[in-house]
Write a structure and sequence with these properties.
alpha/beta; 10-stranded mixed β-sheet; 7 helices; globular
């Protein structure tokens, strides 16, 4: 498949906008496009080591598993699904999730990218509607190494008036897997979205995140972190639009890149005409742990309304040598001092994770990625 064809499939409709949107990831996309892909096998076997990575005790009987984009009843267990949660499948590749009340524990959606004998690809769609109460959801992407797999998941999310949706997205991919995710969310009056993203691994991860604060007093709290090494590549584009009065967004993302990894974060906030009283905050800070690693950050703020409170900032740098010296002067070795500083830097992005067991699991996954284990 040619790079142009992939761009047309995974980018904005406007050709010029599409080219600019993928500017930093075109080499990775070009390399991916050199391979002919076949349809991924939805009946691929899930082995025990992989199952152990998503069979969390806290989400037993609340887990829906998708193998190469297709719902797998044999690997799922939804026996404890609350009556306020309805999960149905409109087609082979489209899932519709409706949550109409409070959820004590999150629903666990697991998307597995499983390789075959040749490079393969899958695509799926997910529609989510939180109509009332406090809904919780975990979206979990992982898979086995092997032949290249290219997955694509497009999600449409609506949070109705007064409802709150809390989401945690964990992408823990093999280096042979690539994933495109596009999530478009609309928040109505007094609706709240609390989202956390943890992005690990992958040959190419691209995430387009669009949020419309369409209702008065709607709010977005977005936290995210990517931790990359080797030649892993993550490209995240956020587009937050304040369209109504007294809306608020608080966007805080962290990035860590080691070895020859590359990360991109584009964060755009637009306050439309008439969206007076908006409060828009964006912060993106990044750490380079190697001279060969690269991170590109692009914050953008566009305001067309009065009586607005807004701020944005972005940094790319290295570990603070003064902080390292302080820790070493207290008897802490260089490797451990580096690990502590990088771990603390990344952990800021996890402050919205509500469940202690989930926070502990995310910390465990991040630990080896931010270990900075060099003398």
């Amino acid at each position: 498949m040619a790079p142009a064809a992939l761009l047309e499939e995974f980018g904005p409709a406007d050709a010029r906008e599409r080219e600019e949107s993928w500017r930093y990831s075109r080499p990775a996309l070009r390399a991916l496009a050199q391979q002919p892909f076949v349809a991924a096998d939805p009946q691929a076997a899930v082995d025990d080591p992989l199952r152990e990575r998503f069979a969390w005790a806290h989400t037993d009987a609340l887990r829906a598993v998708f193998v190469n984009g297709v719902f797998s009843a044999s690997n799922s267990d939804l026996s404890a699904l609350a009556t306020v949660v309805r999960l149905r499948h409109a087609a082979t590749d489209r899932t519709i999730l409706t949550i109409s009340g409070d959820c004590a524990e999150p629903l666990h959606l697991v998307y597995l990218s499983l390789p075959g004998a040749a490079p393969s690809r899958w695509s799926a769609a997910l529609d989510i509607e939180a109509t009332r109460g406090n809904a919780q959801l975990i979206e979990h992407h992982l898979g086995d190494p092997g032949s290249d797999v290219l997955g694509a998941l497009r999600s449409r999310v609506t949070v109705s008036a007064g409802a709150t949706l809390r989401t945690t997205t964990l992408c823990d991919l093999a280096d042979s897997a690539s994933l495109y995710r596009r999530t478009d969310t609309v928040l109505t009056d007094d609706a709240t979205l609390l989202s956390t993203h943890v992005l690990l691994g992958g040959r190419l991860q691209r995430h387009d995140i669009g949020v419309e604060l369409a209702g008065a007093r709607s709010r977005l709290d977005s936290r995210g972190v990517f931790a990359l090494r080797g030649r892993q590549h993550v490209d995240t584009h956020m587009d937050v639009r304040h369209l109504a009065r007294d809306t608020a967004c608080d966007v805080l993302w962290r990035g860590v890149a080691d070895e020859r990894a590359r990360g991109i974060f584009h964060g755009a906030i637009t306050v439309a005409k008439g969206a007076d009283g908006a409060d828009a905050q964006l912060s993106n800070k990044n750490l380079l742990l190697s001279a060969l690693a690269e991170i590109d950050t692009q914050p953008a703020l566009e305001i067309h309304a009065d009586e607005v409170k807004a701020a944005h900032g972005a940094t790319v740098g290295q570990l603070d040598e003064r902080a390292l010296f302080y820790l070493r002067s207290r008897g802490i070795g260089l490797t451990e001092a580096r690990r502590m500083l990088v771990a603390a830097f990344a952990a800021v992005a996890l402050d919205r994770v509500e469940h202690a067991w989930l926070r502990a699991h995310l910390d465990t996954l991040l630990a080896p990625r931010v270990g900075a284990e060099r003398a």
